[in-house]
Amino acid sequence: MLSAAIDTQSLNIGEAAARSGVSAKMVRHYESLGLLPKVRRTDSGYRQYGEAEVHTLRFIRRARDLGFSMAEISELLKLWQNRRRSSAAVKRIAQEHVADLERRIAEMTAMKETLEQLASSCHGDHRPDCPILDDLQH
């Protein structure tokens, strides 16, 4: 009976991308940024990935899903890979990110409220006068 196991030490970029949920283009990008270490290549130059790289790509994808910046992800990866890390450093990064998200949410809420107010004051008919355009020109 043939084994259904996949050789996890020789995944091509498409297979690694599919397993991690990251596009092949982003795999190359993360590698170029140094978030993913340079991987082995075949004699013909094709990248070869293993489970460790797929696991790292999943980590990066999850961090991106949570809105962390590339700089924050780089810092988090270093901490993740350092078994002697302090969890306080990880918590600091997360708390700073939460504060940044709160700031951005407040900014977006203010934008939304302004646009709602402008849209409600616009007649939206055949007349040329428009408070939205008036506001934008200032």
UniProtKB/TrEMBL annotation:
It holds the Pfam family MerR. GO terms for molecular function: copper ion binding; DNA binding; DNA-binding transcription factor activity. The gene is cueR. The keyword DNA-binding applies. It comes from Azohydromonas caseinilytica. One of its GO terms (biological process) is positive regulation of DNA-templated transcription. Residues 10-79 form the HTH merR-type domain. InterPro entries: CueR, DNA-bd_dom_put_sf, MerR-type_HTH_dom, MerR_fam, Tscrpt_reg_MerR_DNA-bd. This is Cu(I)-responsive transcriptional regulator.
